[in-house]
Amino acid sequence: MQSLENFKRINASELRSFLTGLILGDGTIDKGTNKRSFRIKSINHDFINYIEYVIKNNTCFRYYINEFPEMIDRYNVRHQKCWQFVIISHPYFNKLYHYFYDDYRHRTIYTKMLNWLTPIGLANWYMSDGYICLVGKNKGNVYNRRLDICTDRYKLEDIQKIQNFLQNRFNIKTSVNKRSECYRIRICTESYETFITLIQPYIVPSMLYKLYLGYNNKQKWMSDDFWNFQEYLKSAVTPPSNVEG
To answer: Of 97, 102, 73, which Cα lies nearest the Cα of 23?
Structure first.
């Protein structure tokens, strides 16, 4: 990750991208008429601190942070502790609201909103709602990888808009996988390096485990730099006990 000092002054479009990524993930905009508040929860305190740093140094928003001793997420996974970052009601989020929700308060995807996404927003989305599953890791033999973004709350036609955007803007190829009644975006193997290299500078250090692919040997599609980065992650990053897969 870049030094936090690099995020002390970001321009308006980067700030909008920063918030867009959070809202596409686990962030929510509350109800309101002229003002709405924003909130996001995470089990990673460093992620919350990172959000606070950017908001504190680039906006006049008033905010607070709550700590919860225990949380059960929407996948019914129990976490021992989490933190919630809340921006107090502000007209800015009243304007943003209509780009992320339809008239029935259901999440939706509009092309204009996707066009706000830059790598910093894409990284926030992934930190908030993405993961790598190393299939077979628990038995000592990783034979498959799943690099997914949890788009469970979106309709299939919205997910297809996201796919087209990722392909056209960043040359990232994806597939869609059905999980129960929901759909998730999966990054294709040929786009692993493109995707990870794009977001890596913005990933909180304690979340770098989300970028480790678990290969024991350099793959043909890997550049030397990317393989060296994966080797670094192998020796330097320890995933938390509740990491997916």
So the answer is: 97
Q: Which two tokens stand for residue 89?
A: 């009601």
Distance CA 167, CA 185 (A): 12
Q: Report residue 245's pLDDT band, with 50, 70 and 90 as the boundaries.
A: very low
Give the predicted TM-score (pTM) of the model. Answer: 0.91
**Structure tokens, 137:** 């890791």
CATH number for domain 4-124, candidates 2.60.40.3230, 3.10.28.10, 1.10.443.10, 1.20.140.150: 3.10.28.10
Q: Percent helix, strand and coil across the chain, each rounded to 5? A: 45, 20, 35
Q: What is the pLDDT of residues 87-120, one digit of tens each?
A: 999 999 999 999 999 988 899 999 999 999 999 9
